[in-house]
Amino acid sequence: MSLLERFYIPYRATDSIAKLRYQTIHLFHEYKVEMLIIDEFHSLLVGTPRLQRQVMNAIKILCNELQIPIVCVGTKDAIRVLHTYLQHASRFDVAELPTWKLDKDFQKLRFQFQDILPLKKCSNLQSPELATKIHTISGGNLGNVHRLLIACAVEAITTGTGQITLGDLCKIP
User: Fold this and answer.
1) Residue bearing the bigger pLDDT, 170 or 143
2) Which pTM does this prediction carry?
3) What is the pLDDT of residue 88?
4) Please, which domain of life does this record's source organism belong to (predicted)?
5) What phi-psi label fits residue 32: left (phi over 0), alpha (psi between -120 and 50 degrees) or beta?
6) Which of 78, 92, 121, 122 could form a disulfide with 74 if both were Cys (CB 3.0 to 4.6 A apart)?
7) Is residue 131 pLDDT above 80, yes or no?
């Protein structure tokens, strides 16, 4: 049902699983979906073993029917979900994304954020002081960098400074 909701397509929750699955697969073909990305995959661990099996079987069916890459993204706990059942572990390759180092690539990342943040003034995210602080607080984790810079942008807008400052970074818990 979650996939149908992402297509903004009406459906009946009372329909059979087979009918909902058919509708989902039909939409994937109709819209020529080339890849399915499932974020927060590790959150399956909070579900019951029965629910985990159902979700993994649904993913297996989508793999077989759609013949498209399915990318599951999450913390290291996501690997535990995959290895719960041997048949599922063999379907997916595990690739760990390293954290960002404080280097030129991290500088490019900060430039990209600078371009999309809705601030009135340039925040000078490439300055050594801000770069080091952003990297230290985020641990080089992309999601943490994103959340940190969004929180700082909100702070800059709220306070009226119009730019992210070292002080904003120090205020964020």
Assistant:
1) 143
2) 0.69
3) 79
4) Bacteria
5) left
6) 78
7) yes
